[in-house]
Design goal:
Length: 142
């Protein structure tokens, strides 16, 4: 009987690993560095939107992501970046307003208030506008 067991291979070959070692100067710079823009994506809740009622939020629309609730139902999450941080949101009115927006387009979002649904939940309402001449994909931003 033929042995079909695959022998594990080390990558890179022969188990050789190369590290880029920082200089003493680079380590000093690292230890004294201050944080810059945030890379962590957060979820912007309806309560956070309500706190910013009537305040314009300018951001780039970065597309949609499929998500699944606890019952297995699929819904869309909008991905946005306000120049300081990336965030996602799933408020239906906002997601629907962004459906026709091109990827990378600058948009202004204003939470105009909340309405009470039949279920008793408070649902935020939005005014969404495209920002003229603001797009990640336009030639003017290079």
């Amino acid at each position: 009987m033929e042995n079909t067991q695959v022998k594990p291979e080390l990558k890179p070959e022969n188990g050789e690993v190369t590290f880029l070692m920082p200089s003493t100067n680079a380590i000093g710079i690292l230890k004294n560095a201050k944080p810059g823009r945030k890379l962590t994506v957060t979820y912007k809740t309806k309560e956070e939107w309500a706190e910013e009622k009537d305040k314009p939020v300018n951001c780039f629309f970065l597309g949609f992501k499929n998500a699944e609730d606890s019952k297995g139902n699929t819904y869309l999450i909008a991905k946005l970046h306000d120049g300081e941080k990336a965030f996602v949101c799933a408020q239906t009115i906002l997601v629907q307003a962004l459906m026709g927006v091109e990827l990378g387009q600058g948009v202004q979002i204003i939470c105009t208030g909340t309405v009470r649904a039949q279920s008793g939940n408070h649902i935020p309402t939005f005014e969404v506008s495209e920002l003229e001449g603001v797009s990640l994909l336009s030639q003017d931003n290079e």
